[in-house]
Amino acid sequence: MKRHTPEEKIMDVVDACADCDVCRHLMDTSCMFFPELYRLWDRQAGQGGKISDRELRRLVDLCNFCGLCPCPNIRADIMAAKRAFIERDGLALGIRVVEDVERMARVCGAIPRLSNLLLQNKRLGPFIKKAAGIHEGRKVPEFPGEDFPAWARMRGLDVRPERREAASPAAEKAERKVAFFVGCTGRFLFPEVPRAAVEVLQHIGAAVYFPEQKCCGMPTMLEGDMDATLKFARFNIDRLSELAEDGYDIVCSCPTCGYMIRQVLKEGAYYSKQYQDRVGGGGDHLKLPAKMCAIDAGTEKFVTVKTSIFGKILKDDGCFSSIDPEKRILVAENTFDLGEYLLDLREDEVWKSEPGPVETRAVYYPPCHLREQDIGFPYLELLGPIPGLALENIEGSFNCCGIAGIMGFKKEFHKASIKMGSRLIGKIRRIDPEAIVTDCLSCRLQFNQTTPYPVRHPVEVIRDAYLGTGESVP
Q1: What does DSSP assign to residue 224?
Q2: Do the Cβ atoms of 77 and 63 come closer than 8 Å?
Q3: Percent of the chain with pLDDT over 90
């Protein structure tokens, strides 16, 4: 019998995970959800008391969708339970404020000097944080004088290259047209990162377009606010699908945005009737792309599975099934991580120069949502040839900084956030580098909170090496 209440939905997860037990030890350090799940289960199994509704609600909030656990269906079920809680109980005002990163950043960024003064004020700062549901100990980044959208507009990047009045012959004839999806943190808090990305992309001959875009939807999805998540997703998919049809490559500088667009939004789309009709599936069998199946299909592009066996579970009935599945697939299959894209172009030998020296001893941290995309570590290969750059990689799959986007700012999650990232922070402190390099700007916020080291995005280092004077990372 199918369960319907939020508590019943999350108990389904508890029962399934307790029966499996794999994550009891697999996820015991960089995850808050599974250790708590097994603690509650062990107590209940040992006749220590039934898991309460309040404990189930708190358990749901401990999942930050980092992607480290091995079961995507479990993650989806946790999000479904969280969504059910919000639909029934509503969303707290403080969460509604901080979950919309773009809106909050636009308001504060409109008057950055005043916003920074208020937030840094010893008396008013804590009051503002408390009103927004932010933990008093969480460092709030300063808002820049000019955000990335303003910088992009000044340079005409918000107009398609082929439509710009002052388009250069090189831009009009560019073989690669890039639709740049930046992410909220890059657009409004660290605009120097997408600026560096634009400079590098233009350096290697790509025509860059900054289309109108909304938040990728990950922050609101993590809070169970599916109305906002679907609104953002529809907006982005509609516009990005048009660009993909027109030959644009969609490039993400934020690994969380890339993970959301390439994988989360696409889930289930290959099982849809629209897709199956197009590829010749349907009826008693489904045709699935061989690249998404964990079997060796040889030279075949598709794998055929029987509907009678898998039809009940292979359905497009998830959170985003109301969005055109063909558009979701088109966008996902034409979206690239910035590092992955730059590496592919370097292998095509389109780079116009050799790197200059960058004299720095740094540690590189590959963030969770990059690893979840299963594209390797492209920035390690891109940074490797830079003279003078001594780079040590943080190895191991189960390393998480703990910030979890906006979750690390919430007063209820702040301490857990610091604890969850403590193992990674300990590794970095033992290495004691001159700088930290990571492609996740949320991780940058956490590193700024917990370490004394300056933090750079890999593309900033690449820009310095190929377009600058080879200066050391500050």
Answers
A1: T
A2: no
A3: 51
Q: Give how far Cα 31 sits from Cα of 20, 61, 345, Å.
A: 17, 12, 36
Calculate the alpha carbon distances from 32 to 49, 89, 139, 402 in Å: 21, 23, 22, 9
**How far from 431 is each of 22, 186, 377, 447, CA to CA, in Å?**
31, 27, 20, 14
Is it the case that residue 124 has pLDDT exceeding 90?
no
- Are 240 and 211 in contact by the 8 Å Cβ rule? The answer is yes
Q: Provide the whole-model pTM.
A: 0.88
pLDDT tens digit string along 198-228? 999 999 999 999 999 999 999 889 888 999 9
Q: Which residue has the higher pLDDT, 140 or 94?
A: 140
Neighbouring residues of 59: CB distance < 8 A, sequence distance ≥ 6:
10, 14, 33, 36, 37, 40
How much is the CA Rg of the chain, to the nearest whole Å? 23
CB 129 within 8 A of CB 140: yes
At CA 221, angle to CA 218 and CA 226, rounded to 5? 135
Q: Are 67 and 368 in contact (CB under 8 A)?
A: yes
Give 410's DSSP letter: B
Side by side, the strands of the sheet bearing 177-181 are 207-209, 177-181, 248-252, 335-337
Question: Residue 92 and residue 116: Cα distance in Å, rounded?
Answer: 25
SS3 assignment, position 210: coil
| Residue 79, CB-side half-sphere exposure with 13 Å CA sphere | 22
Q: DSSP secondary-structure letter at 105?
A: H
| Strands laid side by side in the 389-393 sheet | 389-393, 360-365, 435-438, 455-456
The C-alpha atoms of residue 313 and residue 12 are separated, in whole angstroms, by 16
Q: Quote the CA–CA distance of 66 and 218 in Å, as a whole number.
A: 11
Q: Give me the pLDDT at residue 421, please.
A: 87
Angle at which helix 101-110 crosses helix 112-120, to 10 degrees, equals: 100
Contacts of 149 (CB under 8 A, 6+ apart): 158, 187, 210
Q: Is 448 helix (H, G, I), strand (E, B) or coil?
A: helix
Contact between residue 454 and residue 433 where contact means Cβ atoms under 8 Å apart: no
Residue 196 banded pLDDT, cuts 50, 70, 90: very high
Q: Give dist(CA 289, CA 301) in Å, integer.
A: 6
CA distances, 7 to each of 18, 25, 75, 174, 413 (Å): 16, 25, 16, 54, 21
